[in-house]
Design a protein that fits this description.
With 210 residues, this protein is α/β, with parallel strands linked by helices. It contains 7 helices and 8 strands; from the N terminus they run βαβαββαβαβαβαβα. Strands 3-2-1-4-5-6-7-8 form an 8-stranded mixed beta sheet, sandwiched between helices. Helix 1 runs parallel beside helix 2. The structure holds NADP nicotinamide-adenine-dinucleotide phosphate (NAP).
Length: 210
């Protein structure tokens, strides 16, 4: 798959690592080109590109910026009409102890409203960067779940294929509206990791009787 990763921070770098290892064609971008260049240099096969035009030719765009930067990043990246955009953002308060929006909307729905031509899918927002960087079972002996929510079946299938290609187990979480549940779930994960002191080598799972 041809994939553009918007953002070269904790999550962006972890995506570039796993996606290049799985054989995808990966471009990475950030406003500070040096950051993207550093991530690309550490991952053979990855390419650092300028933000403008970075989504040209991409089959999938991974949005790995803060929620506050998301719409500007997507608008600055190029034409997103008909493109699958994986939204991994969580609309966190500055101290990471709460969400800035929720209940009646979600980060995913707000981004989708601002970019009506894109096919948005919520995924990976409950996976810590440390877990993504270590790999889908991160030594736990089990595959980490990636919850996928979208109103576009094509976007859901693309996100699921991407997640499975790097070893994750996919849970179909319904329509994009269910990002209203997935973003608070990430909040709980952050509480458990930092507030309760479990650390960031943890991940939520959905278990079903065999
Ligand atoms: N960290 C986690 O464990 C984790 C887990 C699940 C979900 N998330 C979510 O994933 C997202 C990224 O988290 P993170 O920890 O990776 O954040 P981060 O380390 O701060 O990285 C954010 C990246 O976005 C880039 N960026 C900002 N505006 C941009 C723009 N207009 N165009 C291109 N790139 C832009 C920044 O680089 P420049 O400033 O150079 O542009 C930076 O590389 C957040 O929404 C977060 O809630 C994080």
């Amino acid at each position: 798959m041809k994939i553009t990763v918007l953002g070269a921070g904790n999550m962006g770098a972890a995506f570039v690592k796993q996606l290049t290892r799985a054989g995808h064609q990966v471009s990475v971008t950030s406003r500070d080109g040096a950051k993207a260049a550093q991530v690309a240099a550490a991952n053979p096969g990855a390419k650092a590109v300028p933000v403008a035009g970075s989504t040209t030719g991409a089959e999938v765009v991974v949005l790995a910026t803060a929620f506050a930067d998301a719409v500007a990043a997507l608008q600055g990246a190029g034409d997103l009409n008909g493109k699958v955009v994986i939204d991994i953002t969580n609309p966190l308060t500055a101290d990471y102890t709460g969400l800035t929006i929720g209940h009646s909307t979600s980060a995913a729905e707000e981004i989708a409203k601002a970019l009506p031509g894109a096919e948005l899918v919520k995924a990976f927002n409950t996976v810590f960067a440390q877990v993504l960087a270590e790999g889908a079972d991160f030594g736990s002996g089990r595959k980490v779940s990636v919850f996928v929510a979208s109103d576009s079946e094509r976007a859901k299938q693309s996100a699921a294929a991407l997640a499975e290609s790097i070893g994750f187990q996919v849970v179909d979480a319904g329509g994009l509206k269910n990002a209203r549940y997935l973003e608070p779930l990430a909040g709980l994960n952050i509480y458990l990791g930092y507030g309760a002191g479990l650390g960031t080598s943890i991940a939520p799972a959905w278990i079903r009787k065999a």
